Structure formats: C-alpha cells, structure tokens
C-alpha cells in the first residue's frame, strides 16, 4: 500500500458507513505529476450517504492528509459511466463492508450493460452521419 493509500485510509477508516474506497485516475496509472489531483471513489451504506456539507468536509480532510487536491466521488449517486470507470480502472484500497460493495458492483454492471445497449445505435448513427458528410 502506498503512502497516499495509507493516508486516505486513515481519513476514511473512521468515516461511518463507508463500504468501499477506490483510488483511480493518474495515481493508479502511475502518471501522477506534481500538479495532479487524487481521484477517490467512495461507496457508502445506503443509510449513511453523506450530504453536500459532509462531502465537502470529507474532501477537505482528504486534501489535508494527502497534501493535494482531491476529486471525491460518491459512487452511490455517481453517473453510471463514471462509477463504472472508477470500478473498472480503479484500485480497491479498502472494503470494510464487502456485501454492500459486491451488491453495488452487480447492480452497476447491469446498469452499464443496459446503458451500452441503448447507446450503441446512437453512436452508430453518429458515425454513419460523420462518414457521409
């Protein structure tokens, strides 16, 4: 576990209702630059999803811990594509409630598959239109 991951876990480990924490983006791809932010995805138990003020306070605590800007997303209400990308390309660094995490993953994969099925004809039409023009 990297020092950034340890610091993130130190902050989020005490957070009530945390089900899982993922690190994603440049920090996982090994492309972290001095000006890069840290992308953190959190999953909460349904009864513990934080409001906007709690999210801002949590982000501030994370930024103080890692000494960088933090882009914090709450997977419970993130757009399907963003949540799927965080899970697909991210690194699970904490999972205190695996049942909640696994149920979320199964639901998200189903939503993403449905979304792709709806999106495919639209993408094909856009490609055909751009080729014909």
Question: What labels would you give this structure?
Answer:
133 residues; 4-stranded mixed sheet; alpha+beta; 5 helices; globular
Explain what the structure shows.
- By secondary structure, the protein is of the alpha+beta class.
- The protein contains five helices and four strands.
- The protein has helices at 3-12, 26-29, 52-66, 80-89, 98-132; strands at residues 18-24, 38-44, 70-74, 91-94.
- A four-stranded mixed β-sheet has the order 3-2-1-4, with helices on both faces.
- Helix 3 (52-66) links the parallel strand 2 (38-44) and strand 3 (70-74).
- The model has no long low-confidence stretch (mean pLDDT 91).
Helix content: 55-70%
Cα separation of the termini? 51 Å
Task: Give the overall form.
Answer: globular
Instruction: Give the beta-strand count.
Output: 4
Give the count of helical stretches: 5
For the biggest β-sheet, the strand order reads 3-2-1-4
SSE run? HEHEHEHEH
Strand content: 15-25%
**Global mean pLDDT:** 91
Helix-strand category: alpha+beta
Instruction: Give the radius of gyration.
Output: 17 Å
> Which blocks of ≥5 consecutive residues have pLDDT under 50?
none
Largest sheet: 4 strands, mixed
């Amino acid at each position: 576990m990297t020092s950034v991951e340890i610091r993130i876990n130190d902050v989020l480990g005490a957070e009530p209702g945390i089900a899982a924490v993922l690190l994603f983006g440049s920090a996982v791809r090994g492309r972290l630059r001095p000006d890069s932010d840290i992308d953190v995805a959190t999953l909460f138990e349904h009864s513990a999803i934080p409001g906007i003020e709690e999210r801002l306070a949590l982000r501030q605590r994370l930024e103080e811990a890692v000494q960088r800007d933090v882009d914090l997303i709450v997977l419970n209400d993130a757009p399907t594509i963003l949540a799927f990308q965080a899970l697909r390309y991210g690194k699970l660094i904490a999972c205190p409630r695996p049942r909640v995490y696994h149920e979320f993953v199964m639901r998200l994969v189903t939503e993403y598959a449905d979304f792709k099925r709806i999106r495919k004809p639209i993408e094909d039409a856009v490609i055909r239109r751009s080729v014909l023009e």
